[in-house]
Amino acid sequence: MPGLASQNPGLVNERKFVGDARDLPFVLSLLDARLLPDRYHATGRINSVYFDTPGLRAWDEKANGDNLKRKVRARWYGRPSDLSAPETPVFLELKRRIGSARDKVRAEVRAPTDLLRAPLSDPRWPALFAAHAPELGEPVGPEWAPVCRIEYDRVRYNDLENGSRVSVDWAIEGFPNEDRFPWAAPVALDALVCEFKNRGGAPPRWSEALQGAGLRLRSFSKYGECMLRITSGTP
Fold first, then answer.
1. Residues paired with 50 in a beta bridge
2. pLDDT at position 80, please?
3. Which of 107, 119, 82, 101 is nearest to 198 (CA)?
4. How much is the pLDDT for 51?
5. From residue 233, how far is each of 31, 85, 178, 183, 220 by CA, in Å?
6. Does residue 5 have a pLDDT over 80?
7. Which candidate, 100, 107, 179, 188, places its Cα nearest to that of 145?
8. Residue 52 pairs with which residues in a beta bridge?
9. In angstroms, rounded to a whole number, what is the distance separating the alpha carbons of residues 83 and 89?
């Protein structure tokens, strides 16, 4: 079924404040008082299936700290167990990073809901990308297959003062492709991530309160943290 493609013009800077999940009440209270909830998707549970090559090219780029990185993923919203319609909207994404800047191509497609609950070894996963290569602008070859699924809770805001889009993520869980990593167990992270995206990359003024509460402005990747534990067998 044809999808709806969209591409962000130019590069957007992403910066992250990282803390402990115990900081969640303070962070949400601060942002509720200073920012506007996102008009369309203020809250939700996010699922992302990350793809990689047999040699784990994307993971190596992340683990080695390469300045140029590529991610291939499929994303949808809601817990897999809560989905009931025969088909579910799924966003196929190619994401490239140059330092803290990123460029993303995204195509909305319809996927069988039972696939979202199927094992990551299901061959329909790579076939989904192959079928929608025209919407993405470049092919994702059959060598790119799922390595893990990551899900987490998210709250979204808009900061009108400096034009930032802000999100807070927590309850982060990772589930490995059991065929690819038979020794690995599901992963649970205790982290809380407050991310803002804007053109300039300058932290908003309210972020000083986050730093005062102990959150730190630093690099953090849910995919990277989960894959580190999956590849090492650490739950």
1. 73, 148
2. 76
3. 101
4. 94
5. 36, 35, 12, 6, 20
6. no
7. 179
8. 145
9. 11
Tell which residue, 145, 79, 140, has the closest CA to residue 113: 79
- The pLDDT mean for the chain works out to 86
The string of DSSP letters for 44-62 reads EEEEEEEEE-TT-HHHHHH
Residue type, 122: D
CATH of domain 4-232: 3.20.100.30
Which amino acid is located at 100 in the chain? S
Give the Cα separation of 33 and 226 in Å (integer). Answer: 32
What would the two tokens of residue 53 be?
A: 């090559």
* Three-state secondary structure call for residue 209: helix
Domain boundaries, the chain: 4-232
Answer whether residue 56 shows pLDDT above 60: yes
Torsion, Cα of 86, 91, 92, 96 (10° steps): -160
- The model's pLDDT over 117-135, given as tens digits with 9 standing for 90+, comes to 999 999 999 999 888 877 8
For the cut 80, the answer to whether the pLDDT of residue 65 exceeds it is no
pLDDT at residue 140 tops 90: no
Report the C-alpha gap between 71 and 147 in whole angstroms: 12
**pLDDT higher than threshold 70 for residue 100:** no
Predicted pLDDT at 109: 93
pTM comes to: 0.86
Contacts of 19 (CB under 8 A, 6+ apart): 27, 191, 192, 194, 210, 213, 214, 215, 216
- Spell 146-180 as b/e; 16+ CB within 10 A means b: bbbbbbbebbbbebeeeebbbbbbbbbebbbbeeb
Q: Please, is 133 exposed, middle or buried when counting C-beta atoms within 10 Å of its C-beta (0-12, 13-18, 19+)?
A: middle
